[in-house]
Specification:
Length: about 400
């Protein structure tokens, strides 16, 4: 830490988020619902976060790595206090954020909070202007916060260029380990020359590159299209401690079918994306829970090499193939169908997918769980992919060619 403080230009090597962060986030499912009189069960209040923390701790999520409970926008009072400090809404968070953090920590979990680098948050609550950056970082640290998402509504390009690095320094200076999630690139179109991913990786642990996810398949597809169309720029930027964030998992809500839910989970895993669920864990269906709690899927997502996968094939038949290299010479393959008619039989070989010649792999189906068998690079094989669905394989080398 002392070194980090002595070298303010290298704002972030805080040793955090060595694998993509996992947890739960309020925004997509619960938005800015602050009407606790009419809707006490679903409004943004300490009660909602207490209940979600209980679910993460008691329903098998925490053991799988889902450890962050993240408050999004609309938690604060409409004004700062007399000392200029952010304060939580006294009616909706009567115990205060420190008490909520203590509750979360007592369950072996971590607490995330939301701020916005601007005069207001996107929901119209007090923002963090440049003169408030240090004070707000100290406030969050004093409360026991473990992650900060810093949004960018109501701020200029110049303010963002100063403020995002400034907050990284301010968080490091608190001495508390706080994962730093930036929305900076999303406000600058997500691509060079406006976005410098080399600088971003030195400042932030994860960053939002693109639009907010909505509860629809159309939204998921728009994110997938943007990320893989621009994979040559985005893929090298990701790695241990610094991740592209395509936004929350909406599995378990209303907009995705069973097949589409499986597709979002597989594609986010191949992207080495943070797995931040935004759904009601109190009422989640067994099928959605099974997708989100797939152990092999999570193992692939959390692979220590931290290499983001790429789309390697885009067929006229509307089948796409994605590959993510993993540690110990393993790989994840996702066969994805954009078709809307019927299950499609797709035939290819590992040779066509540029695997090394004369290698042999043990193939495991990630969703079914069973070992498909041994596969040589030259062997043709077929997979049957449902409309808007995926087949996902985990490949372990049994015999690699002599180098």
């Amino acid at each position: 830490l002392a070194l980090a403080l002595a070298l303010p230009s290298v704002a972030l090597e805080n040793g955090l988020a060595r694998t993509p962060p996992m947890g739960w986030m309020s925004w997509e499912r619960f938005r800015c619902n602050v009407d606790c009189q009419a809707d006490p069960h679903n409004c943004i209040s300490e009660q909602l976060f207490f209940e979600m923390a209980d679910r993460l701790a008691e329903d098998g999520w925490r053991e799988l790595g889902y450890e962050y409970i993240n408050i999004d926008d609309c938690w604060s009072a409409k004004q700062r206090d007399a000392a200029g400090q952010l304060v939580p809404d006294p009616k909706r968070f009567p115990s205060g954020i420190k008490a909520l953090a203590d509750y979360v920590h007592a369950r072996g979990l971590k607490l995330g909070i939301y701020g916005d680098l601007g005069i207001f948050t996107c929901g119209g609550y007090p923002g963090t202007t440049l003169e408030n950056v240090k004070q707000d970082a100290q406030t969050f640290a004093a409360w026991g916060v473990d992650m900060l998402k810093l949004d960018g509504c109501y701020s200029s390009t110049e303010e963002q260029a100063k403020g995002y690095p400034e907050m990284a320094r301010a968080l490091n200076a608190t001495g508390r380990p706080i994962v730093y999630s930036c929305s900076w690139p999303a406000y600058q179109g997500g691509l060079p020359p406006k976005v410098n991913y080399t600088i971003l990786a030195e400042i932030c642990n994860l960053w939002r590159n693109y639009d907010d996810i909505q509860d629809s398949w159309e939204s998921v597809l728009s994110i997938v299209d943007w990320f893989f169309t621009n994979q040559d720029v985005l893929q090298p930027a990701a790695g241990p401690g610094h991740w592209n964030d395509p936004d929350m998992l909406i599995i378990g809500n209303f907009g995705l079918s069973f097949e589409q839910s499986r597709s979002q989970m597989a594609l986010w895993t191949v992207m080495a994306a943070p797995l931040l669920m935004s759904t009601d864990l109190r009422t989640i269906s067994p099928s959605a829970k099974e997708i989100l709690q797939n152990r092999l899927m999570i193992q692939i997502n959390q692979d220590p090499l931290g290499i983001q996968g790429r789309r390697i094939v885009k067929e006229k038949s509307q089948i796409e193939v994605f590959l993510r290299p993993l540690s110990r010479a393993a790989s994840a393959l996702v066969f994805f169908s954009r078709r809307t008619d019927m299950p499609f039989r797709y035939t290819t070989s590992l040779a066509k997918l540029h695997f090394p010649e004369d290698a042999v792999y043990e193939v495991q189906d990630v969703y079914v769980g069973k070992i498909v068998g041994a596969l040589r690079t030259a062997d043709n094989f077929s997979v049957v992919i449902n409309p808007s669905g995926v087949v996902m394989w985990y490949l372990r080398p049994m015999a690699l060619p002599v180098q």
